[in-house]
Design goal:
Length: 170
């Protein structure tokens, strides 16, 4: 199946000059969504993964089905103030400002083998922050997986030596 046929290009969103790759048509198609989850899972099938770490918010859309497909747990990584119990956080810089990611304290045990999942790898800042947050609790990040990679934005370089798998590349 050609999954790119289910990705809609939206020019000038969220601001002029940006070409946004809209995944909602893919999500709306049972066949395309199922195929995308299977393709996200394939490279990791025999990797002894303990959990999938999902980056808010669109990463959540793929992480649940992916965790079920891999037979592992799911770790939500969220923006500040969204998780109800004690959290640990990682603050990171963006092109114009900064942001923070949080996860619950004690939800990831040291040496747990974790796969980071998000919908898009663009500049890599959010994925890098998620990796550093997990590594701050001595998790072993086995790799990062994305539905879409926007190669021209260089996000892959920010993830260092971590294994990166993508389904679609633009």
């Amino acid at each position: 199946m050609d999954l790119k046929k289910h990705i809609r290009d939206v020019p000038d969103f969220p601001k002029p000059g940006i070409l946004f790759r809209d995944i909602t048509p893919l999500l709306a198609s049972r066949e395309a969504f199922s195929e995308s989850v299977q393709k996200l899972a394939e490279p990791w099938q025999n990797m002894a993964i303990d959990a999938v770490a999902a980056v808010e918010a669109r990463g959540f859309l793929f992480a649940g089905p992916l965790a079920l497909e891999l037979g592992v747990g799911l770790i939500p990584v969220r923006k500040p103030g969204k998780l109800p119990a004690d959290t640990i956080s990682y603050k990171y810089d963006l092109e114009y400002g900064s942001d923070t990611l949080e996860m619950h304290k004690g939800i990831v045990m040291p040496q747990s083998r974790v796969l980071v999942i998000d919908d898009v790898l663009a500049t890599g800042g959010t994925a890098e922050a998620c990796v550093k947050l997990l590594e701050s609790v001595q998790a072993v990040v086995v790799g990062c997986s994305f539905l879409v990679e926007l190669k021209d934005l260089g996000g892959r370089e920010r993830l260092g030596d971590h294994r990166i798998e993508t389904v679609l590349t633009y």
